């Protein structure tokens, strides 16, 4: 029942956020976005967490991502850089969380080559637009790529059953894809369509990760 209430509240807040983005209201976006991001932290806190190490690492990642969300809601260029750093740290905590659920040999497979190729293609697409952001964006892409690779290792291992690893990989994947829209909006072509597709994917990914702490 609690999880159902969380999902309904998240859908309502997401609709409010998309409306705020359409209105181009910085104040409304800041309020709705921070509220929705705090909700995925609350979601993780309300789940049972039988693997405490994974729970604490994921929670730290969610908190840094919430900080990133707040920074990206602000128009200043410095806020974007702070947001990028916050998200990068969030991915690092997610990565350590996935490492805590796997053994080294479970990372060895050919499937991550697809992830590496996709990331390389995206970076090549962004590169002409990056200018001074070349190295920060490269570092971010490397970290999020390894993070998704780790989520795949958890899913492939299935050491913790099926639902938990499935939520982990799906959550990481949706987060990964949503960042393409963030990058497109920032460096290639601004537009509401980036938020219309990117924000639902991002929050779907975050809530799946938040729910995963109770499923491993």
Largest sheet: none
| Secondary-structure class | mainly alpha
Mean pLDDT: 93
Strand content: under 5%
How would you spell out the order of helices and strands? HHHHHHHH
Uncertain spans:
none
Radius of gyration (CA) equals 17 Å
Residues in helices, as a percent range: over 70%
Number of strands: 0
Q: Write down the oligomeric state.
A: single chain
In one word, what is the shape?
globular
Count every helix, treating DSSP H or I runs of 4 or more residues as helices: 8
Distance between the termini: 20 Å
Q: How does this model look, in words?
A:
Helix content is 82%, strand content 0%. It has helices at residues 2-23, 26-46, 52-72, 77-100, 112-130, 134-157, 163-188, 192-212. The protein is globular and about 45 Å long.
List keywords for this structure.
single chain; globular; 8 helices; mainly alpha; 216 residues
Topology:
Blueprint: H1 2-23, H2 26-46, H3 52-72, H4 77-100, H5 112-130, H6 134-157, H7 163-188, H8 192-212
Helix pairs in contact: 1-2, 1-8, 2-3, 2-8, 3-4, 4-6, 5-6, 5-7, 6-7, 7-8
Question: What is the structure about, briefly put?
Answer:
This protein has 216 residues and is mainly alpha-helical. Helices cover 82% and strands 0% of the residues. It has 8 helices and no strands.
